[in-house]
């Protein structure tokens, strides 16, 4: 199979790539990377991602890492297949790009820390740090306070069409909407409606069924 | 309508200006004083000026594909690698370097004490990232391929602090391939023009 994804079932970055492949109806081989045995720090994996992080991605001879670079590549390379994830209009694509940056630079930091405390640590049998949760929830609310008016006059974050800017949120939403932090999303009606809409997409449901 | 870039004194706007010059796009600048920024703190001002600079340069590199330097590669695969190294710059290179600029160059101006432990951690993170770059640049002339791209361009404005006021040029010079790469990208006419027209203020 030409497309391979190396990662783990729990990893948000791996989920980001998998849901993108589903949007494009692309088959791929999923290769499990055993983080607990330190597989990701061994030379065989470092040749795929020198930073020793998951996921790593292969499409034929092309080898990529960084989940959002991978999704961009998939969106462009398979533009004609499945759902369009990037606008063909340069200005619309630029606006989508702005909100994709917002997700990566402003939403992800608090969302990732909350996912770790409330989603992953319990799976690993580690104790949640309530002080971190409280502080990061406050940071997340600042970001969502910007999302709310944006989504009041725009159907999706990037514009009137679903795009990578929306898709990139799905993996952390998986954990946050199953935790007490879901309250901060539900308290903002336009954000809540957008979350419900994007999480109902068949491509996302398919990833969850495969977990 | 001419492109307007706010805050040319600072690094993130320089990222945009560098791209505009490479693509031979006219622009105007609007001065912003970080330390007297409206009602915002210097930290908030920097974030405002930095906001989404990579989205902006992606847009201009794409829209003006047919003129100036090609910054997005010739194939979709090359583009994929450029996106990858742009994300590496955003996640692994800029954050520790940005914090060093903050701790060592901006805090003194606002009378805030710097945190030596954080400075050491920042330097260690940056060194680890540069070790990866050193390996990559031993097999590739530039980060994504053998052609200069947006991924290399994105590094220039903040890296300049390392070799000037941060006095941490050794992070670059101690690494043979990174050193070679830095000499190459920082000698581009576009960067020389940026330094001439918009000299750094710290």
UniProtKB/TrEMBL annotation, chain B:
CDD domains reported for this sequence: GST_C_Phi
Span of domain GST C-terminal: 75-202
Transferase in keyword set: yes
EC number from the UniProt entry: 2.5.1.18
Keyword annotations of the record: Transferase
Pfam (any one): GST_C
Any one annotated GO CC term: cytoplasm
Reaction catalysed by this enzyme: RX + glutathione = an S-substituted glutathione + a halide anion + H(+)
Keyword Transferase among UniProt keywords: yes
SUPFAM superfamilies named in the record: GST C-terminal domain-like (SSF47616), Thioredoxin-like (SSF52833)
Cited InterPro entries: Glutathione-S-Trfase_C-like, Glutathione-S-Trfase_C_sf, Glutathione_S-Trfase, GST_C, GST_Phi_C, Thioredoxin-like_sf
EC category name: transferase
MF (Gene Ontology): glutathione binding; glutathione transferase activity
Example GO BP: glutathione metabolic process
PANTHER family with a match to the protein in the record: GLUTATHIONE S-TRANSFERASE RHO (PTHR43900), GLUTATHIONE TRANSFERASE (PTHR43900:SF65)
Family to which the UniProt record says this protein belongs: Belongs to the GST superfamily. Phi family.
Record protein name field: glutathione transferase
